[in-house]
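protien #1 (seq + structre)
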Amino acid sequence: MKTLLCVALTALLLPLVPVSAQDTDKLLATVNDSKITAGQVDAQARQLAAQGQQASQAQIVDELINLELMQQEALKQELEKLPDVASELKTMRARVLANALLTQVAGNFAVSDEDLKKEYDRQAADNRVSEYLASHILLDDEARAKEIIVELNDGADFAEAAKKYSTGPSGPNGGDLGWFTDGSMVPEFSAAVAEMEPGSHSVAPVKTQFGFHIIKLADKRNKQAQPFEAVADQLRSAMIRTQVSDYIGGLRNSALIEMHE
């Protein structure tokens, strides 16, 4: 879904500028014999671009020097052995590798002009596009999600519950996802929202690749479809996100996943 996709996916949708192996290996600085290369600077620049930010090469090199100095000092103090730090390093390593995987298979995530126009025509068949205003609480455990639904049924405040329990990035904001169009979320989430009435919340957890969602629908509306040229890029990105979601779903379906309480 749009607020939960990692930066890797956003970067995947940006134009890629090839960097030669020679340029990647170019040495820009050394910090106590540790090398900082053009490849590292390029990778950092891509991450910033994915977040809508930019910086000069000199600024990025300076920041990488600071990071390297702090890393070296942290290693001297063996901070990587602390349980919380080790856990975070494991997650960060997984994120980097996931980013590399998406980049490796990026060629599979493409939408032809013909398919793009067909999808636009399908969505604009009645010249209207559904929009939803919703919040959600994301949890890793289905049983816990069911317990929270009971609390909500008993009158608990949804926004406060989201701040307290949600593991998603929108949690601190009360789970608010803002307005989004039909189909811009992962299929299971979109299907659940489409069946809800404004003011209601999920009667059962909605399972997606991200976990278990409790959804509250604040409002919904129909708006006039925009011209194809105005939405083509956004629609193409949404279709690619769906392909990525399907790809990840395929990995999950072929894996042995066991949940432990």
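ok now protien #2
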Amino acid sequence: MKKFIYILMASAALIFFAGEANAQMGKRLYINGGWQMNGTIANDYVQNFQAYGAYVEGGYYVTPMLAVGGFASFGTNNEYIPKQTYQLEDKAAITTDLDRSVYQVPFGATMRVRFMRTEFQPYFEAKVGAEYSTQSTYMSTFVNRKDNWGFYISPEIGITFFPFHKDDVGFQFAAYYSYATNRNDSFNIKGLNNLGLKLGMAF
């Protein structure tokens, strides 16, 4: 009799948690958005990690595990260069400090594969699109600024977590690498490489 009661209780618990998880499992549409920390790497212009960014993305699960959608984000990375002397043309020189800035706005299409359909949903995502970027050097008396466009690609791994039963509100954490083909010969930039972290809400 006790064994039967234990089996009955275990079955009831499984049904209960399956029903609770179904709030997220039944959804085909998803929207994620929040804060982004972006690090520029593999260039001599600006190399640092800064939290001046945000993102939004959404999609539709065409199968229980595969979704397609779109994304947009932005990030700014700044670096201060202490005062030094720079040689100019005609043997002239200028002594100044610099503030360098890289502003990036990628957007495009996404494909996401999730590996579980529970409250915890680890996933892999690939992004492809375009990137608008501005690189600026602020000096004491003027600004040298370049705008350009490039092709953008980014693989990402992350997890969405829905802790509130019967509610489609949760959290997202992800890490990504991205590369954009933006070039700036004046600043010796031959592509923009980034590593980043994302922390946001999942709907």
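The chain has one helix and nine strands.
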